[in-house]
TrEMBL record:
The PAS domain, residue ranges: 227-297
Family annotation (InterPro entries): Biofilm_reg_signaling, EAL_dom, EAL_sf, GGDEF_dom, Nucleotide_cyclase, PAS, PAS-assoc_C, PAS-like_dom_sf
Biased composition (Basic and acidic residues): 118-132, 164-175
Gene3D superfamilies assigned: 3.30.70.270, EAL domain, PAS domain
Listed name of the protein: GGDEF domain-containing protein
Species for this entry: Streptomyces hygroscopicus
Compositionally biased intervals (Low complexity): 145-157
Domain PAC per the UniProt entry, residue ranges: 301-353
């Protein structure tokens, strides 16, 4: 017999190499299982490896072989083998023909005839199918059918143990034709078992799917019912208004809360459309939001919206509109959720009013004014011009201090009423921004002229006295007017310019207005910058001292020098004392700065004394005292400490005090100067002649020198000299010498002037004619030249 397509035959016929194989390899059923595996495994959906699958097929092959040779013949084993193959996932369409093809081609040849023992036992365990129930009676073939179980073997041919030869208790020799016939019947039974198990599995899966679908449907129906019940409960019991409308805007249903908000269900009469719910205060763009929603472009929007009720009152709602879609996603309904915020809105407006208006006068306050100003400044450049008036009452503090704050408050209320009456256009605003400060805003193409006009109207309105508690109080005000173009200037710059301009009006006498000027603003800003830089300048060592010689007119010798402080500013360069001393006095920095100048000047004077010619008169140094220093309690102690630390003799130091600082000074103010004079320090009265002091007052002052102001000697710079100036200087010199006071003249610029002063009897002089202020070394050079 030739080999079949499924592989080599197992009958040991010609060409069979079984005799040459190892014992384990000579088992024909193992070879059958290997052929079966190679034919079926590529077609099966099993997760087993080929070796595992071959091991799975071997017991099935033994069952089929035993069924083939057992008498009486029974096909039950083939049914079970078919079911076992389904369990092994051999369920692909091409798997069953391959299974049957291998059985047809090789089972008979690989099954030992009676009397030939199996190399291995035939009772190897059958693949576990404990989870599969035995075929029911309906699935079993009839007992008398060729494939049914015999009456004396209900459990099948494998229910009894094999004997020592490896065969069942009853085997009989078969002819080839009988063996082939039985093999065919086994194939039919296997196919039947295979199909029966496959259908059973499909039926179980269908039943499982049906049960799952029924359970899902039941759960869905329950969920739908619960969802509808919940929606109805929420819809009816919600404290916020809920309504549903179609895409055309027709109101379909509303809950009781919504009806209560609008005054009853009558408001939502049949045919009512949401497009009717318009109000003049609707937010811009609300109609575009609604169009986008009903067209499906957006899913929801939320706004604060006012509505008119049937009685004309206004209902404010926090309204959320949501688009409801059908199962395909197409827009179907619109759901509105409304919360009544009318009371909240009124409260918010009240709080807003209180936050943006002055409690005393009722005028807008700084917050509201700045909001309006920011809106104007943020507009486009083409939006037009604006003007700001900054008004401050002159002398209002005196009213509060003398008459009390109650009177002051009533005066402010009267002023506010008059100022409010000056605002006669919708684009004008007047606000109280401080105690006695008011700001006005005008807009429009003629804002500059309108701002000046408003300032004039406000001054005119305040011209009449204000009557408070039977008193007539005169009101004066200073106003700064600033104008500009929208979009070109910032808020801070506007307010700063208005403030600076207002103070210029005060400096000009008050009760007037001034227009903003860029140059004036720049000077004030520079002054402010210098003020801020003063404290750090002293710490950084930016100050230095120059010395201007004091020359004796009688012989032209240098008798000393005046110490003049300078500021080497990192931006503005060298600044003279007139540019920063007033700022230092305003900030109080003049005290530490003056002490530093005194220390440096005393140290320098001591160095001059050490380098003076033997027998020569020692040089002295003059140092200016500011009013703040003069009234400072540590003036005497600081001066004594400086003299002791430097080693300078008190007679080599002269402190200069201006005439204006001593006018009207009482004895307590003069006491520090007397103490210093008693120590031997010279006191000079600077700028003499500029004040209005009584000349007899000089006898009370502890001064030893008069420094004549340059204004009295300016007429002597050219010949002929002004006879009036000559007479005035002659009289002052005579009076000073009578009081035993020396006379020093400032600002000498020509030789003619110096000669006139020498002839008139002046003692010393200083000015550019002799030398400009300079470093201390130059003074020593001048002194040496005089000595030679």
């Amino acid at each position: 017999m030739t080999s079949e397509p499924g592989g080599p035959r197992c009958d040991g016929g010609p060409g069979d190499a079984a005799a040459d194989l190892a014992p384990a390899e000579r088992d024909p059923l193992r070879r059958f299982a290997g052929i079966w595996c190679r034919a079926v495994h590529p077609l099966a959906a099993t997760t087993m490896t080929p070796d595992e699958f071959e091991g799975y097929l071997l017991p099935l092959a033994r069952r089929l072989s035993a069924a083939l040779r057992t008498s009486p013949f029974d096909t039950e084993a083939a049914y079970e083998v078919g079911a076992a193959l389904v369990d092994a996932q051999c369920t692909e369409p091409d798997a069953l023909p391959a299974i049957l093809g291998v059985i047809d081609a090789h089972l008979v040849a690989c099954s030992p005839a009676p009397g030939r023992p199996f190399p291995d036992r035939a009772d190897e365990p059958f693949p576990d199918r404990a989870d599969e129930p035995s075929p029911g009676p309906a699935d079993e073939p009839p007992a008398d059918s060729p494939g049914g179980p015999s009456a004396d073997s209900p459990g099948g041919p494998t229910s009894e143990p094999f004997d020592e030869t490896g065969h069942g208790p009853s085997h009989e020799p078969l002819t080839d034709e009988e063996a082939r016939a039985r093999c065919v019947r086994l194939q039919h039974a296997l196919a039947a078992g295979f199909v029966r198990e496959l259908r059973k599995r499909e039926r179980d899966e269908q039943e499982a799917i049906a049960r799952a679908a029924l359970a899902a449907r039941t759960e869905a129906e329950k969920a739908l019912h619960a969802s509808e019940a919940k929606f109805q409960a929420v819809f009816e019991g919600a404290v916020i208004g809920v309504g549903i409308a179609g895409l055309d805007g027709e109101v379909l249903v509303v809950n009781h809360a919504m009806a209560r908000m609008f005054g009853g269900m009558d408001f939502f009469r049949p045919g009512r459309n949401v497009t009717e719910f318009v109000h003049p205060d609707d937010v811009p763009g609300v109609h575009e939001l609604y169009r986008e929603l009903v067209s499906g472009e957006r899913d929801h929007f939320r706004i604060e919206k006012p509505h008119y009720r049937d009685d004309g009152s206004v209902l404010w709602t926090n309204l959320t509109v949501i688009l409801l879609r059908d199962s395909s996603g197409a827009p179907q309904y619109q759901l509105a959720l409304a919360e009544d915020i009318t009371e909240h809105r009124l409260l918010r407006e009240r709080l807003r009013y209180e936050a943006t208006h002055d409690e005393l006068t009722g005028l807008p306050n700084r917050t509201l004014f700045l909001e309006r100003l920011d809106q104007v400044l943020a507009a486009d450049v083409d939006a037009g011009r604006f003007g700001v008036c900054y008004l401050d009452l002159d002398g209002f503090k005196a009213v509060n201090d003398s008459l009390g704050h109650v009177v002051g408050d009533r005066m402010l209320k009267a002023v506010a009423e008059r100022l409010q009456g000056c605002v006669n256009a919708p684009d004008e605003l007047i606000a109280r921004v401080g105690g006695d400060e008011f700001l006005a805003l005008v807009t429009g193409p003629s804002a500059q002229a309108d701002g000046a006009g408003l300032a004039r109207r406000m001054l005119a309105a305040l011209a009449e006295p204000v009557r408070v508690e039977g008193r007539e109080l005169r009101v004066r005000a200073s106003i700064g007017v600033v104008d500009g173009r929208a979009g070109e200037i910032g808020r801070a710059e506007v307010l700063r310019s208005a403030d600076i301009t207002m103070y210029r009006a005060k400096a000009a006498g008050g009760n007037r207005y001034e227009l903003a000027d860029a140059d004036s603003n720049a000077r004030v800003i520079a002054r402010h910058s210098l003020t801020n830089g003063l404290p750090s300048a002293l710490e950084k060592g930016e100050f230095f001292i120059e010395y201007q010689p004091l020359v004796r007119l009688a012989d032209g010798t240098v008798r000393g020098a005046e110490a003049l402080v300078r500021w080497l500013h990192p931006v503005h360069g060298v600044l003279g004392p007139d540019q920063f001393i007033p700022l230092a006095e305003d900030t109080g920095l003049i005290v530490p700065l003056g002490r530093w100048v005194l220390e440096q000047a005393a140290r320098q004077a001591y160095e001059w004394r050490g380098s003076a010619q033997a027998g020569g008169e020692p040089l002295r140094v003059n140092v200016n005292l500011s009013p703040c220093q003069l009234g400072h309690p540590t003036l005497v102690s600081d001066t004594v400490a400086v003299l002791e630390n430097s080693g300078l003799c008190p007679s080599a130091l002269c402190l200069e005090v201006t005439e204006n600082d001593l006018i009207g000074a009482d004895e307590s103010a003069l006491r520090p100067l007397r103490q210093l004079a008693d120590l031997g320090v010279d006191i000079a009265l600077d700028d003499f002649g500029t004040g209005y002091s009584n000349l007899s007052y000089l006898r009370r002052l502890p001064v030893s020198t008069l420094k004549l102001d340059r204004s009295f000697t300016r007429g002597m710079q050219r010949a002929p000299a002004d006879p009036v100036d000559v007479k005035i200087v002659e009289g002052i010199v005579s009076l000073a010498h009578t009081l035993d006071l020396a006379v020093t003249v400032e600002g000498v610029e020509t030789a003619v002037q110096a000669e006139h002063l020498r002839v008139l009897g002046c003692d010393t002089a200083q000015g550019w004619y002799y030398a400009r202020p300079g470093p201390p070394e130059r003074l020593h050079t001048l002194a040496l030249a005089d000595a030679s």
